[in-house]
């Protein structure tokens, strides 16, 4: 299962964006692997399970976020951004958590000027999807 995130639409099952197309600095880690491994008591099977659940929840959360934004529902946008922040922190996806926190704060004030935050979240979700898929493939090889 993978995430396809574009500027205006979400479609599960494909990748469009490359890692280089994200706004994030290339040297900054999307996932803090050491922290994640420590949370999973060093068990790779638990890391894989956590990442799979995280990836699946992102697909639903991004779709809901897109829908809430189209409805101009700032309360829902803030709530979903908060949920993304929490699930991101669970798997040590600290950069996505930061982007989600930024969106949550903006949405609590209004929905004006949230497109950059949405774009950061979309890009980071795509980046994470690629990283998680690559990690899964390397772990099964």
Uncertain spans: 1-26
Q: What is the CATH topology descriptor?
A: Four Helix Bundle (Hemerythrin (Met), subunit A)
**Tally the helices: what do you get?**
5
What oligomeric assembly is this protein in?
single chain
How many β strands by DSSP? 0
Beta-strand residue fraction: under 5%
Largest sheet: none
Backbone shape: elongated
Using only C-alpha atoms, the radius of gyration works out to 15 Å
Level-1 CATH class name: Mainly Alpha
- Supply the CATH architecture: Up-down Bundle
Range of helix content = 55-70%
Which structural class best describes the helix and strand composition?
mainly alpha
**Elements, N to C (H/E):** HHHHH
Keywords: Phosphoprotein
Protein name: HPt domain-containing protein
InterPro entries: HPT_dom_sf, Sig_transdc_His_kin_Hpt_dom
GO molecular function: protein kinase activity
Key words describing this protein structure:
single chain; 141 residues; mainly alpha; Four Helix Bundle (Hemerythrin (Met), subunit A); 0% strand; disordered N terminus
What's this model, at a glance?
The protein has 141 residues and is mainly α. It is 66% helix and 0% strand.
What would your notes on this structure say?
Helix content is 66%, strand content 0%. It is mainly alpha-helical and 141 residues long. The chain has one domain (30-135): HPT domain (Four Helix Bundle (Hemerythrin (Met), subunit A), Up-down Bundle). The longest helix has 27 residues, at 44-70. The two termini are 18 Å apart. 32% of the residues are buried.
């Amino acid at each position: 299962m993978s995430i396809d995130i574009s500027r205006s639409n979400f479609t599960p099952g494909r990748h469009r964006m490359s890692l280089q197309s994200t706004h994030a600095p290339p040297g900054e880690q999307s996932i803090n692997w050491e922290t994640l491994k420590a949370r999973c008591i060093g068990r790779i099977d638990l890391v894989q399970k956590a990442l799979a659940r995280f990836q699946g929840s992102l697909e639903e959360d991004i779709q809901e976020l897109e829908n809430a934004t189209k409805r101009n529902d700032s309360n829902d946008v803030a709530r979903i951004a908060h949920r993304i922040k929490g699930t991101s922190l669970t798997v040590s996806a600290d950069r996505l958590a930061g982007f989600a926190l930024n969106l949550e704060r903006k949405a609590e004030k209004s929905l004006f000027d949230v497109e950059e935050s949405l774009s950061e979240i979309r890009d980071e979700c795509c980046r994470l999807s690629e990283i998680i898929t690559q990690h899964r493939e390397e772990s099964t090889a």
